[in-house]
Amino acid sequence: MNPSRSLKGLIFDLDGTLVDTAPDLLQATNHALSLIDCPAITPEQLRSFVWHGALVLFNPAPYQEVARRLGLDSRHTAMFGDSETDIRTAQNAGVPVIAVSFGYTARHVSHFNPTHVIDHYDEAWPIVKRML
Question: Are 63 and 93 in contact (CB under 8 A)?
Fold first, then answer.
């Protein structure tokens, strides 16, 4: 991170990064499918629909809007994420991205060249501290 742009905020992806929402999404999806007499889907099918389907655009505008709503210039933030979408979006926004290796992605996050990769949140503070 450029020393002239000190870190003022961290923006976290939710699904897979902070919370394992897959079981709830699967249950809700299968309930909705049962209401219209459709067969239930597997966890693998859900991941394909939800997470791989998100790989349409890596538009930084939503990220920048989150920062704006927090009263921050996005250039003074860093992103925590678990997927190609998170990493590419942060890269397109021009901000550092700390990728977690334990989220929802078929390929290891290091493949997408994040700024840092962590295997546990215990590893995050030294990285964030260097960005301050």
Answer: yes
Assess if residue 50 is contained within a domain.
no
> What's the pLDDT at 32?
93
Contacts of 25 by beta carbon, 8 Å cutoff, 6+ apart: 46, 50
Give residue 44's pLDDT band: very low, low, confident or very high (50, 70, 90): confident
Residue 112 included in any domain: yes
| Closest C-alpha among 41, 61, 42, 54 to residue 82 | 54
Tell me the pLDDT of the chain averaged across its residues: 88
Pick the closest to residue 103 from 84, 82, 121, 123 (CA basis): 82
Closest to 97 (Cα-Cα) out of 85, 110, 79, 117: 79
pLDDT at 87 over 80: yes
The neighbouring-strand residues paired with 118 are 100
Q: Which residue range is the domain that position 70 belongs to?
A: 9-19+59-131
Mean pLDDT of 5-15: 89
How many domains in the chain? 1
Which one-letter amino acid corresponds to residue 40? A
Mean pLDDT, rounded, for 41-65? 77
